[in-house]
Design goal:
The protein is of the alpha/beta class. It is built from 11 helices and 10 strands. The structure holds guanosine-5'-triphosphate and magnesium ion.
Length: about 300
Amino acid sequence: MQDGALLLVGVGGLGCRWASHAHLDVEDDCDLLLVDSDPLSLDLSESASTVCLGPEGSGGAILPELGHDWAKAHASIFADMFDRAELVLIAAGLGGGVGSGASTWLAEQARSSGALVVTVVGLPFEDQVARMRWARLSRPRLEAASHATIGISLSALALRAEKRGAEWESGGGWVPSLIRALVQTQARKGVINLDLMDLRTVLTQAGRSTVLVAQGDCYDPRRLFQKAFDAPLERIDLVNAATCLLHIEGGDQVTLGDFDRIADAFTRGLSDNCHVIYGASIVHELEGEVRVIAVLAGL
Ligand SMILES: Nc1nc2c(ncn2[C@@H]2O[C@H](COP(=O)(O)OP(=O)(O)OP(=O)(O)O)[C@@H](O)[C@H]2O)c(=O)[nH]1
Ligand SMILES: [Mg+2]
């Protein structure tokens, strides 16, 4: 890793799947680190650095405290990587031992070494009662450790992924988009670059953060806006968000004028005091469609 690097970290079974999948799109801009006690997770990417937690053959950590201690045992390796990183993006599934426990410790370490820490967490399915309890217990600590924690309800994600014929296990298309948005923003890549405020200012607001996503026709911005606001990936009141990072991806046919109209439709739905930074990039597979990812913070 070089100084100022962007580091994507997958933690636990689900976190490793999300991170390795998302990394395929941002390989040139960020490094990948996979951390789990299950060796199968560490084989998901050929370009990843990996750290195997726990005693050999231990499989899952099950208890968050164990996941936490197993990560701590490799403190010096992590410290070396975090010291050089400017942005550390952590993907994890809450409710598992490694995903809940190790991610918290990693976020604390990354933050104390001066990096901007953004955590993207999967929240257990509504019928997973025991896992949900672990998730509820771990979340406040993870939120305190990260500059921004973006919760994604697995139930909501699975429902949307199914409609689009995508897999929730690999992030249903949305998790990679979100990670792409954050990496490209920080790497200052795209057809419209963000320059009003940087990512740090947008994300380091007191309060919760959430993400809205929508994909559709670029000629109907209002419908797109409605789609996004009607189906956040976590139910949380969106009025009065203090800041918004808006990232729009469009196919080759999409023009700068189209990007502008969409940004306009979105910002009109937010409060007058909301600070918005906006970026856009071309994603060839989208053809005539656009995909909008809005991270709202300070809720
Ligand atoms: N229904 C279902 N939920 C899953 C599956 N995989 C992950 N999850 C959810 O994602 C959360 C995190 O799971 P993992 O990432 O596998 O857990 P882990 O961090 O590896 O935890 P340990 O294996 O206990 O150390 C769980 O609490 C579940 O809510 C799956 O295959 N099916
Ligand atoms: Mg596991």
